Amino acid sequence: MLDTIREVVETVTMLDISKVTRKREYILARALYFYHARRITGRSLEAIGRTMHGKGHDTVIHALAKFDEYYQGYKFFRDSHYQVCKILEDIDKTVVLEEDESLVGVIKDQNRILLMKNAELKEQVAELSEIRQHDRENDIMTMLEGVPEERVQSFINNQLRTFILLEKSRVVQQYKKDQL
Question: Tell me, what's the pLDDT at 101?
Fold first, then answer.
């Protein structure tokens, strides 16, 4: 976009703004370029300055600070500024339309990707459901089918008693250890 802005300014002013000179008309033309480059692109002052044979950010700052003074004091500057604004406004509209069209393409591509990912996730969910069904078939209750309930209850009670006794002894040992 910086190249486009430069081209517009050079066309309107009929000057090569990269020419190394301190003539007023070139200074004014570069000020127009710096102003529109900053306004439209938002690029850093350093980056904008580098496009003019390595001028520093201080040159850009100075031109931007003098912009109102140039606008008030020089008809050439006002007229050029008006013409540049009109041309860049038309270019901005074209760029926005092109960006909108390319944005639609990007959104469609992203939508396709999301649909594919969605299909993959559905397959994974189906696989996990099958695995879960298989796990259910192998869970403890299924394994205990056919074993009389009183034997299962007796086993559970014995295991629970053993667990409680072990836990009590662990708590007592921990208490004794803490007392030392």
Answer: 54
- The torsion angles phi and psi of 138, rounded to 5 degrees, stand at -105, 10
For residues 128, 134, 136 and 141, what is the CA-based torsion angle, rounded to 10 degrees? -160
Domain count, the chain: 1
> Is the residue at 114 inside a domain?
no
DSSP-assigned letter for residue 18: T
pLDDT tens digits for range 15-63: 888 888 889 999 999 899 888 888 888 788 888 888 887 778 888 889 8
**What's the CATH number where 57 sits?**
1.10.1750.10
**pTM (two decimals):** 0.51
Token digits of residue 121? 């996730």
C-alpha span between 66 and 62 (Å, rounded): 6
- Region for residue 15 given its phi and psi (left: phi exceeds 0; alpha: psi -120 to 50; beta: otherwise): beta
